[in-house]
Design goal:
With about 160 residues, this protein is of the alpha/beta class. The protein starts with a helix and ends with a strand. The chain folds into 2 domains: about 80 residues, Signal recognition particle alu RNA binding heterodimer, srp9/1 (2-Layer Sandwich), CATH 3.30.720.100; about 60 residues, Roll (2,3-Dihydroxybiphenyl 1,2-Dioxygenase, domain 1). The protein is built from 3 helices and 8 strands. The chain is globular, with a radius of gyration of 19 Å.
Length: about 160
Amino acid sequence: MTAASLRTGNNPTMERVIMAQAIPYLAFNGNCGEAMRFYERVLGLGAKLEMMMSGADSPMAAHIPPEHAHRILHARLRFDDGSYIYAGDTPIQMPYEGMKGVTITMSYPSTAEAERVFKALSERGKITMPLEPMFWAKSAGMLTDKFGTPWAINGEVII
């Protein structure tokens, strides 16, 4: 079996080849559960919170101080296309410095859906680029939401 057969799907011994998938993993400071439930409600595209495990619910529960047991160790939000957003609260022994150097980009099939999501995410957040027509999409905008997550929202990508 060659690497080319894996890439092209010409592999008679395997029905499906699973390729690597880049999955953003968001870090929060004690409000991961609230953020992920919010994203499930507003992001659309079939977003479904498949998993959310607190320290109290984990196999490590006995090793987690009771005052930190509510913190989320892992959450998984799945979209209809099979993509994910993962998240968790930063371990208490690590300093939380916010989200830096990354923007989560979401592309929607219509400008109306992009506008709805942009409006919901920007509530109590900060708009850094208003939603407007761009050369790559009929509408595009950027914001940081109330949880500190930076977003780029596209509606009807054209290139």
